[in-house]
User: What shape does this take?
Amino acid sequence: MLTGTKQRSPASMRRKCCSGGFSLIEVLVTVVIIAIGLLGLASMQSAGIKLNHDSLLRSKATLAAYDLADRIRANKDYRDSYDTGSGASDFGAEDRVDWLNDLSQELPNGTGTVDVANERVTITILWKNTRNAPTGTPATDQDQSFTLQTDI
Assistant: This one.
């Protein structure tokens, strides 16, 4: 009989034979966990892009409203002609038309109204946002708005 060599029992040989697939199951579970994590990461990235786009449109609307308010301040003598309902055809009305054209180019379906009452000017900007429809609802146009009230 040889010394220094161990003889293996049939039970230990069965354990070694059957435990070979255990590490494969561990790898499969790890791959599933990583896949779920990557799906979560992709979902967060998608939500971030949608919210970033909404923020961009809101920033453009804010800049456009303050731009028109500055134009009205620069032309105080014509401030009543900036009013949407005035029907005037002087410099203020032309400036308002140019501003509305800029809105329609910068914002999806962008439009705006101006209300001048004495020294108080109210500028309202409206646009449609189809990218940020709530999850589970069809992508319909959502009205977004920004209103600026200022004293001239």
About this structure: The mean pLDDT is 83. The beta strands are 111-117, 120-129, 142-151.
